[in-house]
Design a protein that fits this description.
60s Ribosomal Protein L30, Chain: A; 12 strands; 4-stranded mixed sheet; alpha+beta; binds magnesium ion; binds adenosine-5'-diphosphate
């Protein structure tokens, strides 16, 4: 199968690559064309997944397709953007029709769940890797950035943390557990559900936001730095799921929730006066701390004692100093 046949069979003909809102021109030309309503801005983010680094070489291609788009779309959620479209740059060691078929189906399922169109990409030969670039739209001035947290704000998250990291020993076949627990954790890893609706509901309410991909403590550090504030996190308020607690036990579950990464849950700050409406509207909002003057992230126990761990999250290139 040649490059063009591959593109047509598995991607250009896929349901998610058909014309839709905002897409003036899709796959097939030198560029795709998107239109953005006046008064709105484009939000753009790109993510690369490398075999052996971000996923095991031998993983299920359907799940990989879902996950590749899910983790990228999560960045749109974090900005409060409405998803529009995405591109896919695919590097493959060889062409397997079965692999591509399953991959495209997983990608398509996530694309339809997120209401996103596949509008282009690139197909090359080499070690397996995937780069997904996502495009969304957001009203001018309403994007949720990392830099607006104010002393006095509450720090919140959009759901239980640590499940993605909790699933890793299962993904890597290092441990097993009863079916219902492993099913729940593996679903959180392989089909992360980007919190797109929550992100949009936070427009005009959250003062800062991001999606947790490298661990709560590390990612809150980004908000603290960008906003010039300190984030105080109350250890006992960090939400964790029942499957994670039963698989890992309290202590390891907490470690996964604080430093594990792969959550794709939103963390955000807001003025205390904005909380009640969000809760009344039924959004999943757990208050886990507050914004104070200062810098960095501090974890405190029930007595207010500093219990901040030293290791914080995953980095591909660690500082050598
Ligand atoms: P160019 O010669 O301009 O680099 P290509 O030959 O790489 O274009 O791709 C032809 C068309 O197919 C383009 O519209 C491109 O966006 C699209 N395309 C290539 N690979 C993929 C892919 N993996 N998924 C979706 N679209 C793709
Ligand atoms: Mg090309």
């Amino acid at each position: 199968m040649g490059e063009f046949e591959l593109i047509r069979n598995f991607f250009a003909d896929a349901p998610c690559a058909q014309p839709g809102e905002g897409v003036v021109l899709g796959i097939g030309d030198d560029c795709a064309l998107l239109s953005v309503p006046s008064g709105e801005q484009l939000a753009i983010s790109t993510d690369t997944l490398v075999a052996g680094v971000h996923f095991p070489d031998a993983c299920d291609p359907f799940l990989l397709g879902q996950r590749a788009l899910g983790v990228s779309a999560s960045d749109l959620a974090a900005m409060g953007a409405t998803p529009l479209a995405f591109t896919l740059a695919l590097t493959l060691p060889d062409v397997s029709a079965d692999w591509l078929q399953a991959f495209a189906q997983g990608l398509n399922l996530m694309a339809q769940g997120c209401a996103m169109r596949l509008i282009g990409g690139d197909t090359t030969r080499g070690p397996l890797s995937l780069t997904v670039t996502v495009f969304g739209r957001v009203p001018v001035g309403q994007a949720l950035t990392r830099s607006g947290a104010q002393p006095g704000d509450l720090l919140c998250v959009g759901g239980p943390l640590g499940d993605g990291a909790g699933a890793l020993p299962l993904v890597l076949n290092q441990r097993s557990t009863e079916t219902s627990t492993s099913k729940a954790l593996l679903a959180r890893y392989w089909s992360p559900q980007p919190q797109l609706a929550l992100g949009q509901a936070l427009r005009g309410r959250a003062t800062s936001a991001l999606d947790i991909s490298d661990g709560l403590l590390a990612d809150c550090g980004h908000i603290a730095l960008a906003s010039g504030v300190r984030l105080l996190i109350e250890r006992d308020k960090v939400p964790m799921s029942a499957p994670l607690l039963s698989f890992f036990g309290q202590e390891a579950a907490l470690h996964a929730a604080l430093s594990g990464g792969d959550d794709y849950i939103l963390a955000f700050t807001l003025a205390p006066s904005s909380l009640a409406d969000l809760v009344d509207e039924g959004w999943p909002v757990a208050v886990i701390g507050q914004v104070v003057e200062g810098q960095g992230v501090m974890l405190v126990d029930g007595q207010g004692q500093d219990v901040t761990p030293i290791t914080r999250g995953y980095q591909h290139f660690r500082e050598t100093r």
